[in-house]
Structure formats: structure tokens, C-alpha cells
Amino acid sequence: MRTRLAFLPIRLAAPAALLMLAACAPAPIYKASSAAVTAAPFQVAQSPEKFSNSQVIWGGRIVQVKVLADHSEIELLAYPLDASQRPKANDSGSGRFIAVMPGYVEPLDYPSGALMTVDGKLGGSRAGKVGEADYVFPLVSVAQSHVWTTEEMNKGRNNVHFGVGLGVGIR
User: Fold this and answer.
1) Residue 127 lies in a domain
2) I want to staple 125 with a disulfide (CB 3.0 to 4.6 A). Which of 48, 62, 113, 145 is the partner?
3) Which domain holds residue 122?
4) pLDDT tens, residue by residue, 121-156
5) Cβ–Cβ under 8 Å, residues 41 and 139
6) What is the pLDDT of residues 1-60, one digit of tens each?
7) Which run of H or of E encompasses 130?
8) What's one Pfam family here (predicted)?
9) Is residue 55 within 8 Å of 32, Cβ to Cβ?
10) Structural domain count, the chain
11) CA gap 49, 98 in Å, rounded
């Protein structure tokens, strides 16, 4: 009986620790409707008419910003999103898309290479090029957008790593 009681604190501590770790993760920044599209940009590009006017919450790395007369366009290399809707930039890309922003956006606020999440509706597609290759870009009419800071990307992430050997981490 005594040995069972000795393991009781360990049995209680493990679920409590998991609960505390889950509580540290930031909540999603946008609310997805039940009809939101879960397809990746490369899938939408194959048949954009099938997804027309559907809500998406996509994110990725900013490739370039174009400021036009009445709107701005931000080309992104898409990445899957984590539970907090942060792009998982260490994952493989999921295609490219163009975030169509109303009015003027300051390109310095959307620097090339920064990570961004957008909430909006699919508004068709446009043929273009990536380098010399032909490409079809899904167009997202953006309702809300967020450019992630380094601090936000690291928030709620566990900095404890287990392993054998020597490692050097640079952030």
C-alpha cells in the first residue's frame, strides 16, 4: 500500500504539467467559420472555382508586396498553421497565394521574409510566374491580417529540449 501512495504525486503531477503547458499556448487570433476551407493554396489553385467566396485562414512567408492604384497585393509562400494560427515555417510550403489588401499598405510594415496570417475570402485566381515557371495564384480578399514578431512566434513554445550530445542554438 505504501508504494502505491508513493507514486500518487507523480500520477497527479503529469496531467497537471500537461494542462499548464497547454495553457501557455496562445489562442487562435481569428475565428474560423464552420464553412471555412481547410484546403491548402496549391489545392485551391487546381480548381479555384470550386472554392469561390469561401473563408480561409492562411499564413506564410511574405515574398513580395505590390502597391497598386486602389489596393495592395502581398504574395506569400504558404505554410500550415499551428493551433495559434502561426505559420509553421519549418514545414514544407503549401503553395503560394496573393493576399489582396484594400487601399495602400506600407511595404515596410510587410517586410519580405516576415511571417503573416490572413483571414479572408477566396476571390478567384490569377495566372502568373514564379521565376520562369507558370503558376496559378489563389486570390484572398483580406478582412484581417497579422504580421508575426519574433517574440510572438516564440510565445508559448517550450524552450526545454531533451537529447544526448552537444547542441548550439542561435535565435
Assistant:
1) yes
2) 48
3) 41-153
4) 999 999 999 999 999 999 999 999 999 999 998 887
5) no
6) 555 555 555 555 555 444 444 445 567 888 887 778 889 999 999 999 999 999 999 999
7) strand 115-130
8) Slp
9) yes
10) 1
11) 16
> Contact, 77 vs 61, CB < 8 A?
yes
In a domain, 97, yes or no: yes
27 falls within a domain: no
Q: Which has the closest alpha carbon to 148: 123, 168, 118, 126?
A: 118
Residue-level length of the chain: 171
**C-alpha closest to that of 36 among 19, 61, 53, 60:** 53
Q: Which pTM does this prediction carry?
A: 0.76
DSSP class of residue 164 equals: S
